[in-house]
Amino acid sequence: MTLSRLSLLLLCCFAWSAARAEDIQSPNKQLTLSVNVQADGVPTYSLSYKGRPVLKTSKLGLDLKGTTSLTSGFSQTAAERRTADESWQPVWGEVKTIRNHYNELAVTLTQTATKRVMRVRFRLFDDGLGFRYEFPRQPELAYFVVKEERTQFALNGDQKAFWLPGDYDTQEYSTVTSNLSEVRGKMKAATTPNASQTPFSATGLQTPLMLKSKDGLYINIHEAALIDYSAMHLELDDKNFVLESHLTPDALGDKGYLQTPCQSPWRTVIVSDKAADILESKLVLNLNEPTKFKDTSWIKPVKYVGVWWEMITGKSTWSYTNQENIKLDSIDYKTVKPNGTHAANTAHVKEYIDFASKHGFDAVLVEGWNTGWEDWFGKHKDYVFDFVTPYPDYDVQELQRYAASKNVRMMMHHETSGSARNYERHLDTAFQFMNKYGYTSVKTGYVGDVLPRGEHHYSQWLINHYNYVLTKAAEHKIMVNGHEAVRPTGLSRTYPNLIGNEAARGTEYEAFGGNNADHTTILPFTRLIGGPMDYTPGIFETKVSKLNPSNTSFVHSTLARQLALYVTLYSPLQMAADLPEHYNQHLDAFQFIKDVAVDWDDTHVLEAEPGDYVTIARKAKGKSSWFIGSSCDEQGRTSTIKLDFLEPGKKYVATIYADGKDAHYEKNPQAYAIRKLNVTRKSKLAQYCAPGGGYAISVMEAK
């Protein structure tokens, strides 16, 4: 054999070795993953579902700052496989038991030039894929700075997308429904004003990103277990329809500071040819670690009312005075003139406590109780709140005594005005204050630009801050409902005291011009993929001008759909957000809010199509009762469902809270009708949903 022929043979062998693929299938064999190292040492993967491409060949790797990047020059040096099949019970959730069943492939890659080792671990479930980067402890890679993560999701052509503009500081945008090819042209109009926002690209998108392919596949891209890393967005190549990870930078523009051994969050791809399967997936939760808490008995789902909506609408104020330029360490509030519109006063809060007690609610939230609200926003103040000093008209001790006498708990509110550094300084004192006065849950807020200056709501420093708050709260047996924090990534499995997040455009925007009528038919497919949302539903008086004549906004929903949201927008933390006087005007409809559970043994998605409709049935924890909710878009429709999830041989009474015949979210939102039916598991129901409407059903076992 000549030398040239030998060289060619060795080159071909090397190319074959470098390009060899590792394939695995999901347990049900419907998903196939192929992992490859190309001839130039670039690691790639691809994914198919029932033989149809989900993701074409997609690159993997990270750019590093000031050193050789981990994107090419690799060879595969090991591949390990295993299968896991276990079940676990969440502290609270949509189902009593969750199965965690996957086939795993861990590919070890060694970079020839640097001798650095990077492992990519893939877990293939029946409902999708999770994968992450792992960096073992090694002499060649101890400390490193991430310049950018280069994970690709190469789609099979142009797809219908339900997207938000990519932004380092807010998720509170209206979802745009369009083809990916239309994103660039729609981005400017989609990027509406917000209290803090940093859009980064004409084609940048947020996760969870919901997609629908032209051949009918539903695809959801997100991340799981976001710890000590910055949040991932997606940069769209709108010519080739490749999505690439785009991490949130810090004040210096860096994307992450890591020390081995370490790992990235999981990158997740949920896929099915049925939209309902996306909503029933527990993949994101399964990719998080089991709870770290030995005792979880203090963590309990909550149904609450609160002093909140009247301030959102402009009827009342958070602040005690109209004075500005406040310094907490020098002002004496007892000497200033009250404005007469401060909602968080002792007498008024007692009215909410009385209402909560009468109707069986667990807690009362009060915002604006503490000093500092006069100039809390937009001033970049560091020492903006101390979280323990009440206004002169708010008697903490008396209200706690009064609430306890009514078997109602008070829910704390900690707005930080984005000054996360100030919050950390006061955290122990604030939680000790809560323990002293019997508060078991706190609603945190991060409105406005972040302090330290230059940081973003989704950068690594803030991610670590949010998780630090969770761990400190757990030390004091306090549950956390984070607003304006990062979108959830299933961490509620590890930290079940994270009982709620906002992290999206919620009910408050109905007083700021309104949410689109299809908004609540999209949220279950996007924001809620990572965890529950404190959407604050239940608004019965949909004309905001009834509370504040100068505000012409209206709630883009019928009253009946407001009831449905307690089922379709899952949360173990549910607020009846309207004023007590509005519920007193519709006590027959309010009965559903009183009856509906906040913790569940089972969930069935009966019908679903993102942007059009969602109908879900849930079984109350430890009971035989079921609750059904259906929400539709501005077109309206007739929903047809089967009740075959009910127990065989039993009879039930279904109470249906439905849109009236002439109901319409704009023209006649308060038209509703209530009727009762005897049903069994053989029953079928056809129910009209008005434009922007829906229905709610309680199904109780017949006595």
UniProtKB/TrEMBL annotation:
<keyword id="KW-0106">Calcium</keyword>
<dbReference type="InterPro" id="IPR017853">
    <property type="entry name" value="GH"/>
</dbReference>
<feature type="domain" description="Glycosyl-hydrolase 97 catalytic">
    <location>
        <begin position="308"/>
        <end position="504"/>
    </location>
</feature>
<feature type="signal peptide">
    <location>
        <begin position="1"/>
        <end position="21"/>
    </location>
</feature>
<dbReference type="InterPro" id="IPR029486">
    <property type="entry name" value="GH97_N"/>
</dbReference>
<comment type="subunit">
    <text>Monomer.</text>
</comment>
<dbReference type="Pfam" id="PF14508">
    <property type="entry name" value="GH97_N"/>
</dbReference>
<dbReference type="InterPro" id="IPR013785">
    <property type="entry name" value="Aldolase_TIM"/>
</dbReference>
<dbReference type="InterPro" id="IPR019563">
    <property type="entry name" value="GH97_catalytic"/>
</dbReference>
<dbReference type="Pfam" id="PF10566">
    <property type="entry name" value="Glyco_hydro_97"/>
</dbReference>
<dbReference type="InterPro" id="IPR029483">
    <property type="entry name" value="GH97_C"/>
</dbReference>
<feature type="domain" description="Glycosyl-hydrolase 97 C-terminal oligomerisation">
    <location>
        <begin position="599"/>
        <end position="699"/>
    </location>
</feature>
<feature type="domain" description="Glycosyl-hydrolase 97 N-terminal">
    <location>
        <begin position="24"/>
        <end position="290"/>
    </location>
</feature>
<dbReference type="InterPro" id="IPR052720">
    <property type="entry name" value="Glycosyl_hydrolase_97"/>
</dbReference>
<dbReference type="GO" id="GO:0016787">
    <property type="term" value="F:hydrolase activity"/>
</dbReference>
<protein>
    <submittedName>
        <fullName>Glycoside hydrolase family 97 protein</fullName>
    </submittedName>
</protein>
<keyword id="KW-0732">Signal</keyword>
<dbReference type="InterPro" id="IPR014718">
    <property type="entry name" value="GH-type_carb-bd"/>
</dbReference>
<keyword id="KW-0378">Hydrolase</keyword>
<dbReference type="Pfam" id="PF14509">
    <property type="entry name" value="GH97_C"/>
</dbReference>
